[in-house]
Design brief:
The complex is a heterodimer of chains A (488) and B (446). By secondary structure, chain A is an alpha/beta fold. Chain A contains 16 helices and 12 strands. In chain A, helix 3 packs antiparallel against helix 11 and helix 5 packs parallel to helix 11. The chains are: A alpha/beta (488), B alpha/beta (446).
Chain lengths: 488, 446
């Protein structure tokens, strides 16, 4: 990484420089004032930068060099499935037949887009054991919200509108309770037992005729499969509730087990995790939502249907919750996921889960001698260590994460799930080799040793990055959220 | 073994042995028998890379794409020119294969780009603070309504019926569940009906939402609406076309409290509707209620400038059910596209784009109305899009144009049944005089 400070693009601006090239106006020009009354016009121009094309390219290239991506190196960020993003998927998604298509073109001119979406819907339904899938939600959290709205609409349609409570485990991702609140539910928390799974007795005690459903990530955020899942499903169903599957961790089970067969009624998948679409520095993702047959009428409009050799958008769905996003979702992300599934097939997907779970268990086995492992049993695609041993020496999980930066790694997810102290959540994914894992293990062992022998080195980390630890308290107390200078 | 899995069978065998296991099935013993897949998934056979490329080309080939067709369709998604630089920057793996910048020391590229993006959105909208992006314009508008209800502690939202119909549907979907009470305000001569607004607004109103230019392409008188909203203590939310902001009065100048919009026109391909990005900006008093990620400037121990995600106590990972929004992943790469686009176009270029849109759309409007076959529907000023009434059903008209490789305007009757045979035509800077003349010629028919 380059260590020279990169000035803001605004600080590089020089009046009169330009990077754009536009055709001259080829129609008879009119005075702006004749077209738009003065009082509707802008008074002060937007102070956008003025740079040359070379300036622009050098600027963003310099910025990119201050970033770590999956192609830069190992990125074991738990819960995020930072697997390799196949290049060919990027290529095919850039075909003009996908990128240069307007969402309101007549259906006859977009049969390819509709076919792809229809098939993606069907394939994802098969993979999850659901009846139909809506591709409209833009990300995991958006999928959760959509799924919860569907659950509420379903209960209301059966005169069960009083069901206004959603249960989430104490190990759940923050978006679960947040989405439940946005969907107008009250959130109840169920605790985990000493094996890291939902406490079945505690769950039973929460059941009532006000329960709308339970949200579960399976494997859960500890990387453990909820072994009592069928009993849990029975408890919730007997009480009249539905089961929601947060598919963030589906990489552990694709081709092995289906949420539908576990008893779930609604699922979302993160195409930007299990299905290899790139994370884009924080998005775009895609969070398709699948449902069992009884819930299909409530899916967002439109769904894509097929009859007489023709695909079409079906808006005639009176029980639908309506739209949750404009147009048809993050279509181009779906294109990449579709390409991924087409290049894997059943066998390929099953190998993905097997290799991901094997990599995680191998890492866990090698690291548990050096770091506390709160739940010591076979894990799925990820596992959670605790830095409590190191903490005794004054070295926190944050310090360990920062020290890993010096070895060229993106650190694991830290301080999540909340039920593990000093949590380090490690997800290697299937696209990493044993050699990469072994090197990472060596680095983690070295850091554990340093925590014993030279804790200051770990506490002062990172030592090699373009900036050191940044003052986050200052950032929040004295917010500077935009450049406020004036361009030259 | 799949080409994306580096470990060989032999290596996997060794690793399993280290775990004391004989087969990969043993890894999955915690999954109860009844939940395991009994038969292979019914998926197509895996394709090799050349087969995949061919297959994808075939599907893509079934669409009419705008390299081959001339587009006069807009209605919320526009065929603006995307400078070559944008795609090249977005193709850098350091940007597209990374995730949310949780570790600022190795994410300064993304964080600084977000900071620059926030600045540009503030400059365009005339607001104080902006977030790192929302899913799209429709969800940004919806979250703005939710934020206003919470800030003002009222629950009625008045939305102009000239706001994009899909944004209004998303708003309605959410409001069925979150307790917002959404009411619509009609239009007169294509603009917000101020009399109706005045009769409906009250001390119960949390927010007034308008779009500018609105769905008909018409420029609203924002300042008048702002005054009315503020008189009743309501917040004023404007959903703006970012290209238009180069020349039109900014939401900030007009007195808006929250400015949102669909950012697609800023360097993002049409992509059959997504991914796009929603931009979201507000007055600084509303900062702590904003949804989504926000980047901020700070320093390290040596005093070097750096950027971090900040104001995080608003967010789901800390606040859980009390968070201001449930959003986690956003549309970061699309926001980067917008940042690169605005950098390349710059202060002058964006104005030129806006001016070309304005000139060409007015030329097209005159050409079409001069044929005598198209009647004006509204008389209020417009920016890059306008409505005319055809003498025939628009579906027939568009079908005929398709034969000449022209994608005609939107059949606006689909959303506004009262505008019979209404045609919503968009003209961006990319359309040439020749293309416009051809449109007018072919639209007249035989
Ligand atoms: C377990 C879990 N659930 C939900 C989400 C939210 O997904 P997204 O960021 O796509 O909205 C995440 C993402 O990190 C997650 O790890």
């Amino acid at each position: 990484m380059s260590s020279r400070e990169v000035k803001l693009i605004f600080e590089k601006s020089r009046e009169g420089r330009r990077a754009y090239s536009l055709p001259e106006c080829d129609v008879p020009r009119k005075d702006m004032a004749d077209l738009i009354p003065e009082e509707l016009l802008r008074q002060t121009p937007a102070d956008l930068p003025e740079v040359s094309e070379v300036d622009a390219v050098r600027h963003f290239t310099a910025l990119s060099r201050r970033n770590h991506g999956v192609d830069s190196g190992f990125y074991p960020l738990g819960s995020c499935t930072m697997k390799y993003n196949p290049k060919v998927n990027e290529d095919v998604a850039r075909l003009s037949g996908f990128t240069r298509v307007h969402p309101y073109q007549p259906e006859d001119t977009v049969q390819g887009c509709l076919e792809l979406m229809y098939k993606a819907d069907r394939m994802l339904a098969e993979i999850t054991g659901m009846e139909r899938v809506s591709l409209q939600p833009a990300a995991g959290a958006h999928g959760e919200l959509t799924g919860l709205m569907i659950i509420k609409a379903y209960h209301e349609s059966r005169g069960q509108g009083k069901r206004n409570k959603i249960i989430v485990p104490d190990s759940a991702h923050g978006t679960n309770p947040a989405s439940a609140a946005v969907a107008g539910f009250e959130v109840l928390e169920v605790k985990s037992n000493e094996r890291g799974c939902v406490d079945v007795e505690a769950l039973k005690a929460l059941m009532s005729d006000e329960i709308a459903g339970l949200m579960l990530t399976n494997p859960n955020t500890l990387g453990l499969f909820e072994e009592n899942i069928t009993e849990i499903a029975e408890i919730v169903h007997n009480a009249g509730g539905l089961l929601y599957y947060d598919g963030a961790n589906a990489n552990a089970i694709v081709g092995i087990s289906r949420p539908g067969d576990m008893g779930f009624d609604v699922v979302h998948l993160n195409l930007h995790k299990t299905f290899s679409t790139p994370h884009g520095g924080g998005g775009p993702g895609s969070g398709p939502v699948g449902v069992k047959k009884e819930l299909v009428p409530f899916l967002p409009v439109p769904l894509i249907e097929y009859s007489d050799g023709r695909y079409y958008l079906d808006y005639d769905r009176p029980l639908s919750i309506g739209r949750v996003k404009s147009f048809y979702g993050n279509f181009n992300v779906v294109v990449k996921a579709y390409a991924y599934i087409m290049s894997q097939g059943h066998e390929g997907l099953k190998e993905v889960a097997q290799a991901a779970v094997l990599n995680a268990n191998y890492l866990m086995k090698k690291l548990k001698e050096y770091y506390h492992l709160p739940y010591d049993r076979v894990c799925m695609h990820e596992f959670v260590l605790s830095g409590v041993k190191q903490k005794e020496k004054g070295v926190s999980t944050l310090d360990i994460a920062k020290r890993l930066l010096d070895f060229g790694y993106h650190p694991p997810t830290v301080y999540f799930p909340l039920i593990v102290k000093e949590a380090l959540m490690i997800e290697p994914t299937e696209t990493e080799s044993k050699e990469t894992l072994d090197e990472f293990i060596d680095a983690m062992i070295q850091i554990a040793r340093e925590a014993e022998t030279e804790p200051e080195k770990v506490k002062g980390a990172p030592h090699t990055t373009v900036v050191g630890r940044l003052d986050e308290v200052r950032a929040a107390r004295m917010p500077v959220l935009r450049w406020t200078g004036h361009s030259k | 073994m799949s080409r994306y899995i580096p470990n060989t069978r032999h290596q996997q065998g060794e690793m399993l042995k280290e775990l004391g296991m004989g087969s990969p099935e043993q890894l999955f013993e915690s999954i109860p028998e009844e939940a395991r897949l009994k038969k292979p998934l019914d998926l197509p056979k895996a394709l090799s890379e050349p087969e995949l490329v061919k297959h994808m080309q075939e599907i893509a080939g079934k669409n009419a794409n705008l390299d081959e067709y001339t587009c006069f369709l807009g209605a919320g998604a526009y065929d603006h020119y995307i400078p070559s630089v944008v795609g090249h920057v977005l193709s850098r793996q350091e940007f597209y294969t990374s995730y949310t910048p949780y570790q600022p020391e190795i994410s300064q590229g993304t964080l600084q780009a977000i900071f620059e993006y926030q600045t540009m959105i503030c400059q365009l909208t005339g607001m104080d603070v902006a977030n790192a992006s929302m899913y799209d314009g429709a969800t940004a508008l919806t979250e703005a309504a939710v934020m206003a209800c919470q800030a003002v502690k009222r629950n009625e939202v008045l939305v102009a019926s000239s706001v994009h119909p899909e944004s209004r549907t998303v708003l309605k979907t959410y409001s069925r569940f979150n307790g917002c009470d959404v009411k619509e305000i009609g239009y007169s001569d294509g603009r917000v009906d101020l009399e109706e607004l005045e009769s409906k607004i009250s001390g119960r109103t949390a927010a007034v939402i308008v779009q500018n230019p609105n769905f008909f392409g018409i420029i609203e008188n924002l300042s008048e609406i702002a005054a009315l909203a503020h008189k009743y203590g309501a917040l004023f939310i404007v959903s703006a076309d970012p290209i238009s902001l180069a020349v039109l009065k900014s939401p900030g100048e007009a007195g808006a409290d929250i400015a949102v919009g669909e950012g697609q026109p800023l360097g993002n391909p049409l992509n059959f509707g997504g991914p796009y990005l929603g931009f979201f900006a507000a007055k600084k008093e509303l900062l702590r209620r904003m949804p989504g990620r926000i980047a901020g400037e700070t320093i390290d121990a040596e005093g070097r400038r750096g950027f971090v995600l900040t104001m995080q106590t608003r967010e789901q990972h800390i606040r859980r059910e009390k968070a201001t929004s449930n959003i986690c992943s956003n549309q970061a790469l699309n926001a980067l596209a917008a940042t690169v686009y605005l950098t390349v176009m710059g202060k002058q270029g964006l104005k030129e784009v806006a001016d070309l849109c304005l000139q060409k759309s007015h030329y097209a409007y005159e050409k079409l109305t001069a044929t005598g076959k198209f009647q004006p529907v509204f008389s209020a000023p417009f920016f890059k899009e306008f409505v005319v009434r055809a003498k025939e059903p628009v579906s027939d008209l568009n079908r005929r144009l398709l034969g000449s490789k022209i994608i005609g305007g939107l059949e606006i009757e689909k959303f506004y049944p009262e505008i019979q045979n209404g045609w919503l035509v968009a003209v961006t800077e990319k359309r040439t005089r020749e293309e416009i003349d051809q449109l007018a010629g072919k639209a007249v028919g035989v």
